[in-house]
Design brief:
By secondary structure, the protein is an alpha+beta fold. It is 13% helix and 18% strand. The strands form eight sheets. Strands 3, 4, 5, 6, 7, 8 and 9 form a seven-stranded mixed sheet that branches.
Length: 701
């Protein structure tokens, strides 16, 4: 009989039970689109994975996962072709505030908050609560670039890939240094600011993902703009105690704390027969029932379980001695040091946190106790290693000053501005008996003389409400090369030849986001006595990169009057002169990192319509106390806006990088283009530099 359809059903096959077969998994390039966790699951288009989900090609070929807990893992290589990215990295929080899982069960560092607070470190310029689950997709290797088409700034095209070659060597990827850490962080934040700028131009009801920090982190890791990939116990090269971070991804790219959301980072030592993990670092930021009142002792709660859920329908479960909890327990037994990062609310930006690296701790004891909702929790007592610089304790002290629980030592005046600034600026001397600087009139802007030649009159915008990013009908945006110069929370996106702000003739309200430099001081500043450089300026608040600090205020003088000052022997130490030579530096984002269609049109060299010389000797504001440094943390940016139907040039100071509280603010005074180093006469005399930087050129002025 002929078999039906060519199949002989009478034939008996030798079938083995499934449990005896060895599973074979597809490689990353062959993986089907089915829902599972990376590295082989379906992921959104437009993103590529970062370590540990981008395995070396040889690992894929042999179908073996890399040893993520290896002390010296193989260098990361990015395979050709589209790569999946972990869904957890780009999942927007749901409206209820719940957060997605950060790592799969077998991964390291799962300390997930059951109350949705541990990881709500949102970019303060955007509200992500209303994000929809449906998302617009972009093609990998391209980023959406704005195209001005008939005044529609929302029209976009997919830019062709721009080659970017990382300057970081394989050795530097493994082990960093201070300059490299600063380079990585500066590039990360430049990318993040640019992404924020692009997102701000989109319609408010868009479903696009708002987490610019996660996108920037993914780009930095994929393009190898990162360092300290070598897993290690103890200090991280180039990261200093007291360094601050505003995004968890910043800690990832410099190797301080690997998990982008989880609170415990751990690894398994090579050659350890027990295969037990040990803890490397922890983040304590208020998501669990931690006791953080002491600056030297931290009572840290374990991970996992449901011990404090707001949803009464969710059953309470106990924490288990596994993963991060087990790592902390083994670190207690081994006595190894654990890096501790403390997080707290950022007073300057709503719905945001600031994190400070508090140094090395050792776990002294552990126990279990019942949480507030009934579930059992692991508790670990960590004690700070002695002899380290102060970090978290500084923030605690400042908090007491602000709340009035502690008086400021050495306070001379509670507010030297006499109410001219909306935020008081205190005067402090803890060094000597000097009672204050020489008398001057506090004035928070520029005084132009009537005879001074100004630029041509400029017409303002016609925006009746606030000026909106992407509105190409706004003349002020047109002057800024068609792009809003600031993010939604007032952070400068890029250095410009000239920033145009809305002026007095613009009908937009005073709180328009294109008036950043006109609203005065925005952080709590303090004028203090230095040990060897007179009076200086610093902040009680942590300052983000790109934050406006203050304007250089004073009297605008012409070149003739400036020369006469020197000829008559008058000494004026409070001169700002745009004609000086200033060291160039790179601050803007690299277009290649965003695969933009064309290079960044913004040139960082300033284009000033006329020389500007300002004297703050007799009248000025807090800027007159900013000292010089050859390695500054502040830069100046020319800003132009209209007053009385004329355009006036102003000088705004912005933060180069994140600045921890009570760190002195400095900028580069530049070097006079007149005369040589030996010129010590007249207004162009050189002064000895006392900045103490490793890059000190020895003089300024």
């Amino acid at each position: 009989m002929e078999p039906l359809n060519g199949i002989d059903k009478s034939r008996v096959l030798d079938v083995k039970p499934l449990r005896t077969l060895t599973p074979v998994f597809p490689t990353g390039a062959q993986a089907p689109n089915f829902g599972c966790m990376p590295p082989f699951g379906h992921t959104p288009n437009g993103f590529s994975p970062f370590f540990p989900f981008s395995a070396p090609p040889q690992a894929e070929a042999t179908q073996h996962s890399p040893d993520l807990n290896h002390v010296n893992p193989p260098a990361m290589q990015t395979p050709a072709g589209p790569m999946p990215a972990p869904l957890r990295s780009y999942r927007a929080p749901n409206p209820s505030g719940g957060l997605p899982h950060d790592f799969p069960e077998e991964s390291n560092g799962d300390r997930k908050s059951s109350i949705g607070d541990e990881d709500e470190y949102f970019d303060g310029h955007k509200d992500v609560a209303g994000s929809s689950s449906s998302r617009k997709k972009t093609t990998r290797g391209s980023y959406r670039k704005k195209v001005r088409r008939n005044g529609d700034a929302d029209a976009v095209v997919l830019g062709s890939s721009v080659n970017f070659v990382s300057v970081i060597s394989p050795a530097q990827l493994e082990d960093g240094n201070r300059d490299l850490v600063n380079y990585v962080l500066m590039n990360f934040d430049a990318i993040r600011r640019r992404i924020c700028q692009i997102e701000d131009t989109k319609e408010k009801n868009t479903d696009s993902i708002k987490r610019a920090d996660l996108k920037a982190g993914n780009i930095a890791m994929t393009k190898k703009v990162r360092t300290n990939m070598r897993r290690r116990i103890g200090p991280v090269p180039g990261v200093e105690i007291g360094d601050i971070f505003f995004f968890r991804m910043e800690m990832c790219v410099v190797g301080l704390h690997a998990p982008s959301m989880a609170g415990i980072d751990y690894m398994t030592l090579r050659g350890d027969l027990e295969k037990d993990p040990i803890a490397l670092s922890i983040v304590s930021s208020g998501g669990y029932e931690d006791d953080t009142d002491s600056s030297d002792v931290l009572i840290y709660s374990g991970q996992g379980g449901i011990t404090n859920s707001k949803d009464k329908q969710v059953a309470v479960t106990d924490q288990k001695l596994e993963r991060g909890n087990l790592a902390l327990e083994r670190s207690l037994q081994r006595g190894n040091e654990v890096r501790v990062i403390r997080g707290l609310k950022d007073d300057t930006t709503p719905n945001s946190k600031v994190y400070i690296y508090d140094g090395l701790y050792k776990i002294q004891e552990s126990w279990t106790e019942r949480g507030k909702s009934g579930g059992n929790m692991f508790k670990y007592k960590l004690v700070r290693v002695s002899g380290q610089p102060d970090a978290f304790s500084v923030l605690q002290t400042i908090r007491k000053w602000k709340d009035g629980f502690l008086s400021r030592a050495g306070l001379v005046l509670p507010d030297l501005t006499s109410g001219s600034e909306r935020i008081p600026v205190s005067l402090v001397n803890e060094v000597d008996n000097e009672k204050g600087p020489a008398y001057f009139t506090y004035f928070n802007s520029l005084k132009y003389s009537k005879s001074f030649t100004l630029t041509q009159p400029s017409l303002g915008c016609k925006c009746r409400n606030a000026c909106l990013p992407g509105d190409m009908n706004c003349s002020c945006i047109q002057k800024n090369e068609g792009e809003f110069p600031y993010t939604g929370n007032g952070i400068l996106v890029s250095r410009k030849q000239l920033v145009y702000e809305c002026g007095a003739s613009c009908p937009c309200p005073p709180n328009c986001k294109n008036r950043v430099s006109q609203s005065g001081v925005k952080v709590r500043l303090e004028v203090f006595r230095t040990k060897d450089r007179g009076w200086g300026l610093r902040s009680w608040d942590p300052i983000r990169a790109g934050t406006f600090i203050c304007e250089y205020a004073g009297e605008v003088i012409d070149e003739v009057k400036f020369k006469n000052k020197g000829d008559e022997g008058e000494i004026d130490e409070y001169i700002f002169d745009t004609r000086r030579n200033f060291d160039s530096f790179k601050w803007n984002y690299e277009p290649g990192l965003l695969d933009e269609e064309s290079p960044n049109d913004s040139v960082e060299a300033y284009s000033i319509p006329y020389p500007l010389i300002i004297s703050a000797k007799n009248a000025g504001n807090v800027s007159r106390f900013i000292n010089h440094s050859c390695s500054p943390n502040v830069f100046w940016q020319p800003v132009l806006y209209e007053q009385n139907n004329q355009s006036f040039l102003h000088i705004g100071f912005f933060a180069i990088r994140h600045i921890p509280p009570l760190t002195e603010l400095t900028y580069d005074y530049g070097v006079s283009m007149f005369g040589g180093v030996g010129n010590n006469n007249g207004p162009h005399r050189k002064k000895k530099c006392l900045c103490g930087s490793s890059k000190c050129r020895g003089y300024f002025g």
